[in-house]
Specification:
The chain has 3 helices and 8 strands. It folds into 2 domains: 59 residues, 2,3-Dihydroxybiphenyl 1,2-Dioxygenase, domain 1 (Roll), CATH 3.10.180; 74 residues, 2,3-Dihydroxybiphenyl 1,2-Dioxygenase, domain 1 (Roll). The strands form 2 sheets. The chain has a 4-stranded mixed sheet with strand order 1-4-3-2. A 4-stranded antiparallel sheet has the order 5-6-7-8, with helices on one face. It has 144 residues and is of the alpha+beta class. The C terminus is likely disordered. It is globular and about 40 Å long. The protein is 19% helix and 33% strand. Strand 5 and strand 6 form a beta hairpin.
Length: 144
Amino acid sequence: MSTKIFINLPVKDLTASTGFFAGLGYTQHPQFSDANASCFVFSDDIHAMLLVEPFFQTFTPESIADATTSTGEIMAPGVDSREQVDELADKALALGAQQVKEPMEESCMCTAAASPIWTDTTGRSSGWPRTPSRGEYGSSTVGG
């Protein structure tokens, strides 16, 4: 059974956030986009819903995290190669994101982290899992 996942992210500036995700190469889904929301397709089953803060607030009684002082979420789309990690991070930085930490290489993945500077949402990182047993970059699944 396939389950669709819609990741809901509060944003202050829908236009800037939409431009950021479009600039990274993701496709906007017009059926789920309007003045309050912009939906981006990551895969057939995973979508990011950018919701203006007042609309996001209708889904929860909790306060929205202040992205200038805290981390409310970290999104890490997987890509197919180390080069694609670097390319995605470079695109994010060119679109106005800020590098929030140095790229990391762990035993099972490498990541590059960036955050949009307009502080709509918190961390974005891209990662590419590698095969730990070989100590080299490998398949797109951890340990695969």
